[in-house]
Amino acid sequence: MSRHDFVFSDSVDDARLAARFKPIFDDIAAGAVERDRTRALPYDAVRRLSEAGFGSIRIPVEQGGAGVTLTQLFRLLIELGAADSNLPQILRAHFGFVEDWLNAPPGPDRDAWIARFVLGDIVGGAWTETGDVALGQVATQLTRTPEGWTLSGRKYYSTGTIFADWIDVYARHADPAEGGDVIVAVDTRAAGVTIEDDWDGFGQKTTGSGTTVFDDVRIADSQIIPFERRFKYQTAFYQVFHLATLAGIGRAVERDAARAVRERTRVYSHGNARKVGDDAQIQQVVGEIAAWAFAAQAIALAAAEPLQRAFDAHFAPGHGARDPAQDSTHSPTQDRHAAENLANADAEIASAKGQIAVTELVLRAATHLFDALGASAVGAGKAFDRHWRNARTVSSHNPIVYKSRIVGDRAINGTAPNTVWQIGATPAKA
What we know:
The protein is an alpha+beta fold. It is built from twelve helices and ten strands. It has three domains: 8-122, Orthogonal Bundle (Butyryl-Coa Dehydrogenase, subunit A, domain 1), CATH 1.10.540.10; 141-229, Butyryl-CoA Dehydrogenase, subunit A, domain 2 (Beta Barrel), CATH 2.40.110.10; 234-413, Butyryl-CoA Dehydrogenase, subunit A, domain 3 (Up-down Bundle), CATH 1.20.140. It has helices at 14-30, 32-38, 43-51, 70-83, 86-90, 92-103, 108-119, 234-263, 280-314, 332-368, 385-395, 400-413, and strands at residues 2-3, 6-7, 123-126, 141-145, 148-155, 166-173, 181-187, 193-195, 212-219, 224-226. The strands form two sheets. Strands 3, 4, 5, 6, 7, 8, 9 and 10 form an eight-stranded mixed beta sheet that branches. A two-stranded antiparallel ribbon has the order 1-2. Helix 9 packs antiparallel against helix 10 (332-368) and helix 10 runs antiparallel to helix 11. The protein is globular. The termini are far apart. It is an enzyme of class 1 (oxidoreductase).
């Protein structure tokens, strides 16, 4: 099946794919509690994933990757999230940047980036600015000088950047005559780049989501990407990443609850069995957690399917084309764009629905875990609280209340969802 000059396989074996990464996932899981307790950043885990080719699994086989579909990607990310939910979030910007180049037109720049991904280069993100930056404004500026382009600015929530080789930076031309918003690919080793480990969230503590400063960083023309070229289903893609992370947390809650009950030897005098694992009420608690984790994963994977359709629609010349003799007001290109826009809207709504449902399910499971155990479960050494802290942190991105309204407006009025998300200080009234 050809899309541009890429060839993607629809027959990548899920079992072999999972087996390829399972030993790494198991090792990552073994160190997750200690990393959370000591806030030790998972440099080794990121390195091992990179060396194993995890960062290039979306690249077609013929170009050196694994050629996985988007659904397969998110299934693997759920497994990784069950091992340590910090890792999928660390790689979120990376896979977004990969996806953008998979959607890009053929050319030497795309070839260069595909080669970097296959060699194991990892990309972090630096999009969000804090402080008094007005909504819709971008303080990080790209400036043309007699010596070439320079980039200056300050970003926060730079998830994954501290582990990365490159940074996906959202910026704006200082001179409007040069253009508008851009993506700048910045080498983390470049002079003028400072990456600070100052993320202080109570959850997802080892994602490295801190400050990145750009101080007159020299930028080549090939590192500048017009923002309007960005892949159109990006916001849905980034949200489904969060759903996969949450679903992974749900799986981890189920695993830890079942194991803790299985190993528990102390019982209550008012319990229902001589062994906790045989107590019908405790079995019910763990069963409910398992059901919620199952539902969260099913919803996350269901939300990934419209993303795949949006990807396919981008490479479907003549898709939905009409007979010009029947209707001369529409061209095949117009109909293809209409089909692609509809696919993107469907992906956005599916991701929003998933966020609303999965957040509640996983937070409920992370709390219910303690109903299956005694007071010893709150011991810091077990770090069972990390599941709730991590889930609450991930689900605080892109507020649910707004997503509920968007979904409702779509259902009632057919309103197209907004696919550009921004945050900033309230603009001054005119």
